[in-house]
């Protein structure tokens, strides 16, 4: 061990790597507590907790490699994506966590607030925002709560060859819509949805998944830009929105 690697750094949290240990420093101690409890409950492999001293959580590196990154083609096999889908199904069928998730009314209010900001500031064209707000409506309906990861980005799912190895970053885990997890995993990788569903099962509404792509991309664009990320990079959130036109 000869250096400290900064993995993620913004105003809300910082993740550092020292050898095979990751240290997460979070301004919201309740979020770290949720992460620890969610990993203990999840019926899928999660990182080993080495120690937890608020506001810091130290976890072991997850074996394998991430399914891919947003904005670039995934080199993982179709079998690996299917294995991830099967693991996510196990999570969604597990007993619910004791804490609630986000209320539908709050999601709708945030979405409308962000849409207004995107148009009023000229960040995105009004027709692009309007079309995606229409698409988003399919996701904004009552759902049967499932145990969801809540931030199932492609970089949070690890595989080794064709084998699923585990899932990291559980701070957003809660009760929620199972289709939201499937949407976040395949955001910007629509071509991999069939592979995921081969493992997850096909009893899903693809229109709802597509709708969550729009919800996520509209809602996250301002936050990403304000925290040092580029939602307009090729293959990222703005391209996801354009694909719905």
TrEMBL record:
<dbReference type="InterPro" id="IPR002575">
    <property type="entry name" value="Aminoglycoside_PTrfase"/>
</dbReference>
<dbReference type="InterPro" id="IPR011009">
    <property type="entry name" value="Kinase-like_dom_sf"/>
</dbReference>
<protein>
    <submittedName>
        <fullName>Aminoglycoside phosphotransferase</fullName>
    </submittedName>
</protein>
<dbReference type="Pfam" id="PF01636">
    <property type="entry name" value="APH"/>
</dbReference>
<dbReference type="InterPro" id="IPR051678">
    <property type="entry name" value="AGP_Transferase"/>
</dbReference>
<feature type="domain" description="Aminoglycoside phosphotransferase">
    <location>
        <begin position="35"/>
        <end position="209"/>
    </location>
</feature>
């Amino acid at each position: 061990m000869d250096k400290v690697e900064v993995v993620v750094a913004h105003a809300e949290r910082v993740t550092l790597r020292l050898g095979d240990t990751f240290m997460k420093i979070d301004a919201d101690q309740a979020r770290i507590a949720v992460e620890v409890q969610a990993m203990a409950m999840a019926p899928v492999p999660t990182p080993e907790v080495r120690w937890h001293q608020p506001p810091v959580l130290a976890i072991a590196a997850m074996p394998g490699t991430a399914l891919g990154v947003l904005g670039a083609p995934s080199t993982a096999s179709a079998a690996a994506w299917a294995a991830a889908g099967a693991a996510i199904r196990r999570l969604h069928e597990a007993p619910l966590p004791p804490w609630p998730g986000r209320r539908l009314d709050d999601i709708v209010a945030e979405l409308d607030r962000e849409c207004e900001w995107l148009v009023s500031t000229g960040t995105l064209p009004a027709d692009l925002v309007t079309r995606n707000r229409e698409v988003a409506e399919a996701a904004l309906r009552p759902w049967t709560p499932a145990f969801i990861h809540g931030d199932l980005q492609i970089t949070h799912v690890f595989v080794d060859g064709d084998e699923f190895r585990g899932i990291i970053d559980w701070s957003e885990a809660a009760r929620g819509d199972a289709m939201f997890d499937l949407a976040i995993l395949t955001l910007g990788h629509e071509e991999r949805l069939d592979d995921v569903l081969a493992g997850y099962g096909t009893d899903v509404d693809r229109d709802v998944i597509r709708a969550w792509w729009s919800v996520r991309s509209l809602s996250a664009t301002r936050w990403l830009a304000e925290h040092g990320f580029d939602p307009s990079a090729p293959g990222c959130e703005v391209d996801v929105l354009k694909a719905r036109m």
